[in-house]
Design goal:
This protein has 265 residues and is an all-alpha fold. 88% of the residues lie in helices and 0% in strands. Keywords: Coiled coil.
Length: 265
């Protein structure tokens, strides 16, 4: 296949797809119905024109028949006064009119037959147009209902273009929020570990080390508690008993020192 044929096929396929997307069946049906009405109107005008021509021929026949009757009367009158020549002339003219009348009657019959055919065609076309109008309105109502149902279903499922845009906006917002939360958490951890300097205030290295050791002690106590629950070790000791025996020993003498004056009293 040549390049031009491929380009032509691609163009036609894309144009056909664009036309399918742009086409509204309701508008197409309305246009077809309008064209049928125009055709019906033309047929009716044709019937009216033929009927007018038939009526004109009928009037001409009536006029010629009236002239023929007049010539016949004139012939009788001429014979009554002994003018045979005038009578012969009047009858000759009347015969000429009869020939014209005969031709007009043939034309009249033809026009009458054509008028009847067009009238029957107009009636049949009118019936088809009425049937098409009913079917058109039914199809339009069905299409409108199906379109509305499709939009509702797409809205519920989230696959419509509008809902899809909303879903993408929500997804981007959630992604950015999660990214900011992760960044904030990472910065907090780096500040706590000392990897980053906090320039908003004075840094206390001793307190930072105590916080770090305290956090590790809490983890060890939690692990010891879980082992005790599982029967894999003794119950965990408190922070004073486990890691600060000196402080526990110092608290007892202080308590005794506070009670001794009372005992003396």
């Amino acid at each position: 296949m040549s390049v031009m044929k491929r380009l032509s096929m691609i163009f036609k396929s894309k144009a056909n797809r664009a036309l399918d997307k742009m086409e509204d069946p309701r508008e197409t049906l309305d246009y077809s119905y309008q064209r049928q009405l125009e055709l019906l109107q033309k047929v009716r005008r044709g019937v009216a024109d033929v009927a007018t021509s038939r009526k004109r021929v009928e009037l001409q026949i009536n006029q010629l028949e009236a002239q023929g009757k007049k010539l016949e009367d004139q012939g009788r009158q001429a014979l009554s006064v002994g003018r045979e020549d005038l009578a012969r002339e009047a009858l000759t003219r009347r015969n000429g009119l009869n020939t014209q009348i005969a031709d007009l009657r043939i034309q009249y019959n033809n026009l009458q037959g054509e008028e009847e055919k067009l009238t029957l065609a107009s009636q049949r076309l009118q019936a088809k147009v009425d049937s098409f109008r009913t079917k058109k309105e039914t199809i339009k109502a069905t299409y409108t209902a199906a379109e509305a149902q499709t939009r509702i279903n797409e809205a519920f499922s989230g696959i419509s273009e509008e809902m899809g845009d909303v879903g993408l906006a929500i997804q981007r917002a959630e992604d950015k929020t999660a990214q900011m939360q992760a960044r904030a958490g990472a910065i907090d951890e780096l500040l706590a570990s000392g990897a980053l300097d906090d320039f908003t205030g004075q840094r206390d290295d001793i307190q930072a080390e105590l916080d770090r050791m305290g956090g590790g002690t809490d983890v060890e106590l939690e692990i010891a508690r879980m082992k005790a629950e599982l029967g894999q070790g003794p119950a965990p000791k408190s922070a004073i008993e486990a890691g600060q025996p000196g402080q526990a020993a110092q608290q007892a003498p202080q308590t005794q020192q506070i009670r001794q004056p009372g005992e003396g009293l």
